[in-house]
Structure formats: structure tokens, C-alpha cells
């Protein structure tokens, strides 16, 4: 596995690969790798000549009271996991490589951000879009791999690629879960033992909602109520949001129909967890 730390060297390498006719698959991450990240790589390896992973904890996408400093990091472990997964090039830039000087431009994501994490984390998707524009221009990928655990991110990247005409295909990858259903996340290490035993109930709550919809419930509030009760009964987590929206447009719905997302965010003492289920309902 090649490790590249300079943006210029990475871009030169990508240009060289393109000239040689190789396709590039790219999975951006913030590291502290787990099976979810590696699933992105596995799929990229199947569909591209060269697979690039980046690890960069992007300060721009964290709010002032969020966990940027405390975000889990273990670069040496990540290098081994990435290499074992088959990553061809690991792009591992320092902060100064990505943000060498005060930027002249500010990216403002207008659509698909007034709901879910976009509402709870103001500015988060502006930071995500900014880093992705940079990474797409540095790595020049043909295919980019994003996990559906962060479904709103998938929706925003879909718009980003279309709005700015990136010659890139977005490949959403299904959420990788622990055996008990908990969505894998770098932040799971910050759950206490008790919280860890409660956390699978987030997905179970989503499943309860999904079952109600499949049985014919079309009122979003009723389904949200079912999930809310279930989570309040089975966890000590504080519900940040539970929402049912169209996907990928993320519009609010009077009635549940078509392709929808049921999404939630729940705060435990040191970790805020998110999860979702996507459904297609045709009556
Ligand atoms: P992060 O390092 O948390 O920014 O995640 C980097 C990429 O991995 C994003 O596209 C995430 O959606 C994806 N990812 C994170 N957790 C999972 C998971 N459990 N299953 C699939 N993809 C995931």
C-alpha cells in the first residue's frame, strides 16, 4: 500500500493513473476504521483498477461544541487495517496540507440540509461539501463510495456531484452492523457498557417503525411515536430527532409513500449515534 501525505503528490499520482487509463475508486473517511469503512473498500476493489482511501478528521465539519478534539484516532492501527483490506493508496494529509491558508470561498449547502443532522449540526454539511470538493479534485475518482449509515451525507453528495458536474459516480453502500444490529461507528467506543447494551435498540426501534409502515400505517407522526416510545422505554439516550422524509430529496411527508427514510439521532453521555432505514412503499 502506498501512503501519500501531500495533496500535490496525491494529485500527481492520480493524474498519472488516469493517463495510464486506470479507473480510480475512492472512499473518504475520518479514520478509526471499522468493518463499515472496509466494506466501502471491498466494493471499490471490485469495481476499480485502483482504490484510494483518505483518512482526515475534517475540522470544518465539526461544530464548536462537538467532538473534534475527542474524535477517536489511531493512525497506526488504521494503516494496518487499510492495507489488509487491500487499499492501494492511503491519502493521509495533515491539516495544513488540506487547509494551507485562510480560504477565499465558503460553500453553503442550501437543499437537503434543513432536516435531520443538517438541522442539529448547523454548518456540518458545508464542511463536508468543502472537504469533498477538495478531495474529489485531488484524487480524481471515477467512483466514490459512501455509507448509507450517513444517508443525509449520501443525499448531499448526490446533489454536490450533480450541481458541480463532477464526472463521478456515487455508489451508496449498505450499513454494516454489529451482530446485535448496532450500526458500526467510530464513536461506538465512547459508549459505556450499559449504553452499549442499550444501543441496539435504536435499530430495533427503527424496525418497529418500519413494520408499522409495512402493515399499512401511513401517518408519519404515528410511526415516529412508536419509535420514540420504544427508544424511551429501552434506552437512557436522549432523542435528538426521529424523522420520516422522502429520500433522497428529504422532503417532509403528509403521508408515507414512495421511497422514504426513517432516521434518528440519539445522544448518549459521550456519543451521539445515528441510524436509519430506507423503505419503498407503493400502495
Ligand atoms: P466516517 O469515517 O465516519 O466519516 O465515515 C466514512 C465513510 O464510511 C462514510 O461514507 C460513512 O457513511 C461510511 N460508514 C461509516 N460507518 C459505516 C457503516 N456502519 N456501514 C457502512 N458505511 C459506513
TrEMBL record:
GO terms for cellular component: cytosol. GO terms for molecular function: ATP binding; pantoate-beta-alanine ligase activity. It catalyses: (R)-pantoate + beta-alanine + ATP = (R)-pantothenate + AMP + diphosphate + H(+). Keywords: ATP-binding, Cytoplasm, Ligase, Nucleotide-binding, Pantothenate biosynthesis. Its EC number is 6.3.2.1. It is found in: Cytoplasm. (R)-pantoate binds at residues 61, 153. Beta-alanine binds at residue 61. SUPFAM superfamilies: Nucleotidylyl transferase. One of its GO terms (biological process) is pantothenate biosynthetic process. Catalyzes the condensation of pantoate with beta-alanine in an ATP-dependent reaction via a pantoyl-adenylate intermediate. The reaction proceeds by a bi uni uni bi ping pong mechanism. Homodimer. This is Pantothenate synthetase. The gene is panC.
Amino acid at each position: 500500500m502506498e501512503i501519500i501525505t501531500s495533496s500535490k503528490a496525491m494529485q500527481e499520482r492520480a493524474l498519472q493513473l488516469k493517463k495510464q487509463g486506470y479507473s480510480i475508486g475512492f472512499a473518504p473517511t475520518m479514520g478509526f476504521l471499522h468493518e463499515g469503512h472496509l466494506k466501502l473498500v471491498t466494493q471499490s476493489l471490485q469495481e476499480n483498477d485502483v482504490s484510494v482511501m483518505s483518512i482526515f478528521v475534517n475540522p470544518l465539519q465539526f461544530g464548536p461544541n462537538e467532538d473534534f478534539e475527542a474524535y477517536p484516532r489511531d493512525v497506526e492501527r488504521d494503516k494496518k487495517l487499510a492495507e489488509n483490506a487491500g487499499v492501494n493508496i492511503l491519502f493521509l494529509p495533515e491539516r495544513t496540507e488540506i487547509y494551507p491558508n485562510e480560504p477565499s470561498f465558503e460553500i453553503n449547502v442550501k437543499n437537503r440540509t434543513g432536516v435531520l443532522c443538517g438541522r442539529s449540526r448547523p454548518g456540518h454539511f458545508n464542511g463536508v461539501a468543502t472537504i469533498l470538493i477538495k478531495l474529489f479534485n485531488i484524487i480524481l475518482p471515477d467512483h466514490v463510495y459512501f455509507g448509507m449509515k450517513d444517508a443525509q451525507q449520501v443525499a448531499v453528495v448526490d446533489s454536490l456531484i450533480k450541481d458541480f458536474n463532477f464526472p463521478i459516480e456515487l455508489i451508496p453502500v449498505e450499513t454494516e452492523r454489529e451482530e446485535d444490529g448496532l450500526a458500526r461507528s467510530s464513536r461506538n467506543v465512547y459508549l459505556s457498557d450499559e449504553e452499549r447494551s442499550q444501543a441496539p435498540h435504536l435499530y430495533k426501534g427503527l424496525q418497529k417503525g418500519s413494520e408499522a409502515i409495512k402493515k399499512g400505517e401511513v401517518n408519519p407522526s404515528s410511526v415516529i411515536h412508536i419509535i420514540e416510545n420504544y427508544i424511551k422505554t429501552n434506552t437512557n439516550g436522549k432523542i435528538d430527532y426521529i424523522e420520516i422524509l422522502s429520500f433522497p430529496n428529504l422532503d417532509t411527508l403528509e403521508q408515507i409513500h414512495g421511497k422514504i427514510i426513517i432516521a434518528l439521532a440519539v445522544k448518549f453521555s459521550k456519543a451521539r449515534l445515528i441510524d436509519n432505514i430506507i423503505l419503498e412503499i407503493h400502495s
